[in-house]
Structure formats: C-alpha cells, structure tokens
Amino acid sequence: MKKWIALLAVVAIVGSSVVVFAQDATKDQPRKEDQRTRARETRAATAPAAATKPAPGTEAGRMDMSSMMETRAKQMEAEVAKKKAEYQVQIDQWKAILKLAEEEKAAKTADAIKKVIATKEAEMNKDIQAQEERMKQTQEQMKKRMEDMKKRQETMKEGSKPAAPAAPVAPAPKPAEKPKEK
C-alpha cells in the first residue's frame, strides 16, 4: 500500500512539473499578432531604402554600378582563394600520408599516393583556371556594360535621343484587280 501511495505522489509531482514547464514554454513564444506586426514593420523599414536607389543612367547610378563591379570582383577573387585553400588542405593531407608511407617503406602505397596528389593538383589547376577565366569574362562584360551606359548617358546629355532603328518600309500596294468578264 505504501508503494502505491509513493508511486501516486511521484506521478503527481512529475505531471505538475510537466504542466508548469509547458506553460513557461508557451509564454516565451511570440504570438502570431506580434510576428505579423514585426514583419510589417520590417517591410516598411526596407521599402524607403529601395525607393532611394539611384537610377542607372545618372552619375550616382554609374558610381553604384562601379562599386557593384568592384564588389563582385572581390567576391570572385575570394572564391578563387577559398577554392585554392580547400585544395591545398586536401593535398597537404595526402602529402602527410605519403610521408608516413615512405617512412614505413611502403613503395606501392607511396606511388599510389603520389598519383592521387598529382591528380588532385591537376584538378585544382583546371578548376582554378576555369574559375579565373569566368572571372575575366564577367569583368569584361561589366566593363562593356559600363561603357555602354556612359555612351547612352552622353547621348542623353547632348539632347539627342539614341538612334532608333529605321522603321521598316511597307511594301507598295498591289494594283486593284479588275473584275473578270465572262
């Protein structure tokens, strides 16, 4: 009988503590209305920033484009450096294994590891070359866009609109057909 009373007391204590913890957890979570209000405030705060963005054809817009170009170039250079570092870590790990294999005088293993290292280095060079080539192409495209934008802006400053393509000439009208007589 005493065991049953002790068991009921333990169950009651555990049950009440679970209820208390559940209530505390729901108090910490924000209500849906609060989440919606925060979302509206966030959208309202970011909208004016987008509205003040300079137009691409203006001087401020050109400066914005050049800073975007510089930022993109830095990002691409950082990607190349990161890729090189990742490959170098892998190669260094293989070189450490190669050193152990040579110390243990495992010639076949050492030869296999040397082949893996050579493959990794070739793969690294190929990937980095391709990434650098993409970076050069992107920079050339950005420079071309900047030059085109400068040309458009200069033509707009001169007061003349950019030359529009000539309108296609309509074909000459066909002569009216004469009614056939029988």
Proportion in helices = over 70%
Radius of gyration: 36 Å
The proportion of residues in beta strands is: under 5%
Report how far apart the termini are: 126 Å
Spell the H/E element sequence.
HHHH
Query: Could you say which overall geometry the principal axes of the C-alpha atoms support?
Result: flat
Q: For the residues shown, what is the average pLDDT?
A: 75
Question: Helix tally?
Answer: 4
Structural class: mainly alpha
For this structure, the quaternary state is single chain
Count of DSSP E strands?
0
Low-confidence stretches: none
Characterize the main sheet. Answer: none
Structural commentary:
The protein is an all-alpha fold and 182 residues long. It has a domain at 69-152. It has 4 helices and no strands. It has helices at residues 2-28, 32-51, 59-103, 107-157. Helix 3 packs antiparallel against helix 4.
Can you describe this structure in just a few lines?
By secondary structure, the protein is mostly helical. It has 4 helices and no strands. It is flat and about 100 Å long.
Quick tags:
182 residues; mainly alpha; 4 helices; flat
Which helices and strands occur, and which strands form pairs?
Blueprint: H1 2-28, H2 32-51, H3 59-103, H4 107-157
Helix pairs in contact: 3-4
